[in-house]
Design brief:
Blueprint (H helix, E strand, L loop, with lengths): L13 H60 L2 H22 L2 H11 L4 E11 L2 E10 L2 H14 L2 E12 L5 E9 L15
Antiparallel strand pairs: 1-2, 2-4, 3-4
Length: 196
C-alpha cells in the first residue's frame, strides 16, 4: 500500500473551514448587536423608571404636606358637632324603623297561660332598648317559664333581671323584670311584619 500523496499539488479542505469560521463570525456579530440593542433599551427604561420614581416620591411628599396642612385646619368642635348630628340622625332612623307590633308579638308568644303583663316601659340606654315589664303570675314556675320563653325567641338578652318580686292580696306573684330587646334578631323576625 502506498502512503504518499501522488498529486502534484495537495488539496486541503480549506474552503469548508473558512465557511464555518465566517458563519461563526456572523453569529458572534449578530449576538453582539442584539446584546448592544438590549443594553441600550434597558438603560433607557431604567432612566425613565428612575425619573418616574423621583417624580412619584416628590408628589407623595407634596400630598403628605397637604394632609398635614388639612389636619391642622380641621376644627375638633366641628367634628364633634358633625358626629352629634350623625348620632341624632341615627336615633331618628332607629325610632322610625322600630316595630312595636313585632315587640308585642314576641312578648305575646312568650307569655304562658297563667301570666299577665300589667305594665310595660321602654327606654333607650347607650343605643340599647331596655324594657321594664311588670307581670302577675300564679307561681314562680310560671315566671321562670315566661323568662325561658323570652330567651328562646332570641329577641331578648339579659333576660331575668328581676327588679321587684312580691305577693299581692290575691296570692299572686307580682314581678317586675328588666331585659334588653334586640330588634330583628329573634326566630320570628319578620313574622310580626315590618315597621309599623
Amino acid at each position: 500500500m502506498i502512503r504518499t500523496n501522488l498529486s502534484t499539488r495537495p488539496f486541503y479542505n480549506e474552503r469548508v473551514v473558512h465557511i464555518w469560521l465566517l458563519a461563526f463570525l456572523v453569529l458572534v456579530i449578530a449576538a453582539t448587536a442584539f446584546n448592544a440593542t438590549r443594553i441600550l433599551q434597558y438603560s433607557q427604561s431604567d432612566t425613565q423608571l428612575s425619573t418616574q420614581a423621583s417624580a412619584d416620591e416628590s408628589r407623595a411628599a407634596e400630598l403628605r404636606a397637604a394632609a398635614v396642612r388639612l389636619r391642622t385646619t380641621v376644627d375638633p368642635r366641628q367634628i364633634e358637632f358633625a358626629s352629634l348630628e350623625a348620632r341624632q340622625a341615627n336615633d331618628l332612623i332607629d325610632r322610625r324603623t322600630f316595630s312595636w307590633t313585632a315587640l308585642f308579638n314576641y312578648i305575646e308568644s312568650a307569655l304562658p297561660d297563667d301570666v299577665r303583663v300589667t305594665s310595660f316601659r321602654s327606654k333607650v340606654d347607650k343605643g340599647q332598648i331596655v324594657l321594664t315589664i311588670a307581670i302577675i303570675a300564679r307561681s314562680a314556675e310560671d315566671v321562670s317559664k315566661f323568662l325561658d320563653n323570652m330567651q328562646r325567641t332570641g329577641a331578648f338578652t339579659q333576660v331575668g333581671g328581676t327588679l321587684e318580686e312580691r305577693m299581692n292580696e290575691e296570692g299572686q306573684l307580682q314581678v317586675s323584670l328588666e331585659t334588653i330587646y334586640l330588634p330583628m334578631t329573634g326566630h320570628t323576625a319578620g313574622a310580626g311584619g315590618g315597621a309599623r
